[in-house]
Amino acid sequence: MKLRYFLFTVIAAVLAFVLLGFLTRLPDNSNKNPSHVIDDGELTSLGMAFKSQLQAHPELSGVYLLKRGLDAFVGRAGLARLAERSIDVQYYMFHQDTVGRLLINELLDAADRGVRVRMLIDDMYGGEADDIWLSLDSHPSFEVRLFNPFVRGHSKNLQFLTRLKTVNHRMHSKTFTVDNQATIVGGRNIGDEYFDADPNLAFSDLDVMAIGPVVPDVSTEFDQYWNSEHAYPVTTLMPDAEIMSLEQLRKDMDAFYAEKQTSAYIDALYNSPFAKALKAHTAEFSFAKAAVIHDSPDKLDKAENWKDGLLISQLAPYILNTTEEYTLVSPYFVPGQRAADALCDLSQNGVKVHILTNSLASNDVSAVHTGYIRHRKQLLRCGVQLYELNEQLKKAESKLFTWLPGLSKSSLHAKTMGFDHKAMFVGSFNFDQRSLFINNEIGILFYQPELAAETADNFDKNVAKVAFRVELVTDEQGRESLRWVGQEAGKEVVFEDEPYAGFWQKLAVQVMRILPIDAML
Questions:
Q1: What are the structural domains of the chain?
Q2: How far apart are the first and last CA of the chain?
Q3: Which of 16, 121, 458, 485 is most buried, by CB atoms within 10 Å?
Q4: What's this model's pTM, rounded to 2 decimal places?
Q5: Which tens digits make up the pLDDT trace of 241-272?
Q6: How many C-beta atoms surround the C-beta of residue 250 within 10 A?
């Protein structure tokens, strides 16, 4: 009798799970209309503005590093105001806060001028603004799609059970392209914390604005994602939803915009040196051989030879061919054994390998730290220099370091690489297992020795001011331990345990360390 009851319970549970899986299936997406880049942007004002500079540097792309949050906002909003033909927007997060709403206002204004706006947002957090997406999509010049979406009307947590294989994959790419003539690629999502608008929190980040040959390559990447089977029009996901009128949306946005007229963002958009240079077409780009490197939108499908097309597979030769110095800045650093061994090989072959990542205290995802600390001692043994962000800077320092701004109140969020003081990579790619094998990423690799050398030199001069250098020490009995050496108020400080991390935070990391979760981090 007990066995029969047990079997009945198991069968009922299986049937319930199958039913839930059926209920959380996505709607048919085969009838969406494909669209592609509008490729006559060279005739627009932007195209004409950059023409003479590009002609003076044939086959090279212009790059401009957006280090500060205000400039990063001005770059996006300013380009939107200059748009005449098209704007393509691709983001992992697009919050409805100060920065998000101000940018939506600019995009809506562009659409009202007849500019075609395509917005592709990953659906991990996309559902937070379904009413906004639907309203924008009702505009004849505005279309919104959500990448790898969740089924509306059903629990997101439930779908992590019934659809884990698919919903675990996220589009982490971040691009903003105008008239196929200028693009911004980098680490910033759209939200106050990425643009210095949040007084209590800021992510130290970096983007690159680019013109020239790399821009059509970013547009091609966007088209691949936009027309992918994983990109769903919002109306396909919510065919019967009540739509806020555009008139009401405009009123809401206008009211919000009026409230922010005195904000630093509006002021910067009109008066900052970068805004004036952008409007006057006098922004000073550095010209470089450059390439766009990105994952396929079909990364989650894992077709035959899928690893050959990974961003890291394309980037690895540049890392492995470094001969003098390799500098990695990554907020989440979970290399895995194979990459840890490769970094050790570089170091033991005479390459100076410098890595800056978050400390346990500054990391906004503590679980990630478990995948990092597994390899910390190995990397230190073979000569890799590890630096971890000093959390105490949030409280003790007000100075902004121009080499990596925002660190006075921030977690590290920039994702960059430097190669031999000659080349740089800037993008959305974290050096962790999610970016390596799960999420979709993009970045721009450019060979510009002057800019790369300046950035690398600034790193070398300033990293000790904002981060602890992790050292491996051995006692008389041969036992290894770690210590963290840093600077605070101009004096050297030394810790023999994770600096500024609380007891429960340390305990949680040690508990998670025994779990086989690295592949998800």
A1: 64-279 (3.30.870.10), 295-520 (3.30.870.10)
A2: 45
A3: 121
A4: 0.92
A5: 999 999 999 998 888 878 776 688 888 999 99
A6: 15
